[in-house]
Amino acid sequence: MARTNGTRATLDAVATAAGVSKATVSKVLNGRPGVSGETRERVREAMRRVGYSPTVGPRDPAPAGSVQVVFDTLVNPYAVHVLDGVLAGAEELGAEVVTSVLRPNGGARTTPVGPAWLEQLSARGRAGLILVTSELTAEEIAACRRLGLGLVVVDPLNPLDENLVSVGATNWAGGVQATEHLLSLGHRRIGYAGGPARSVPARERLHGYREALESAGVPPAPELALLDSFQPDAGRRMADTLLDLADPPTAVFAGSDSIAMGVLAAARARGLRVPGELSVVGFDDTYGTLWTDPPLTTVHQPLRDMGRVAVRTTLLLARGEKPDSHHVQLATRLLVRGSTAPP
User: Is the dihedral of CA 295, 299, 300, 302 positive or negative?
Assistant: First the structure.
């Protein structure tokens, strides 16, 4: 109940009413991280109950704070596009961005993600964490929640569940768009060279590819669908496997632009003309797709917008608020360029 005797409610009174420390109340007032959404709401309710009002007016929400962005690797154009969007979104919101990489130079993983590392982020004043194309354990997800760190995953490896807020693109629809384009040109032997099997986006693109084939009455051939990684060398390996078949594909849908560049390299090494003897479609619409020879037909996914949405959602969660959706998927569209033609 609010005070009526003219005395002003104190931070100590709020802390007692909420059952938390005075330091926790101060964090909530100043919008600092390190407080769970549930505790933050309990403190706000205690402020209302005891009639507390800050001397200089409401201070929550306060400055946006800093966000840690963790990439699996930066050795690909996809990551640069996402980072570009994160930086733009942070600037719009007045937040700072700190970047770290799990696999520097694309090699072995050197930076651990675990509860102890997450506690260090919280101690350094991070408002939240954006994880790009990486996987979190249940223990790590719980640690973020306990520490009050806003957590958003871009193109997650984890299966989508309500404990994890994710931002991505309509990968299934993009897979359908790419495959339907090749089918419309007259291709029937269409290969799929995709990313790792544990990747949610890679599996969704594969499912879109299969759906488009089945809808067109073309039975998917198991030997034509391969999964490896999103890197160019993987694209070259998968292309070599596909092109060595007794009945090779006349077109390849690559699960990323990086994979597509590997497919183009394999075609060049064999003296195959693209698109005269092999059509190729990528996925991402990253830097360089206009400068491949020929320019790459690809599925555009709004990577910069995904970065913007990720940072905005992370700060929303850090304030203890709920997102409009736990799994945001932004629309894809096909961009037809010079790498596809009738067989």
Answer: negative
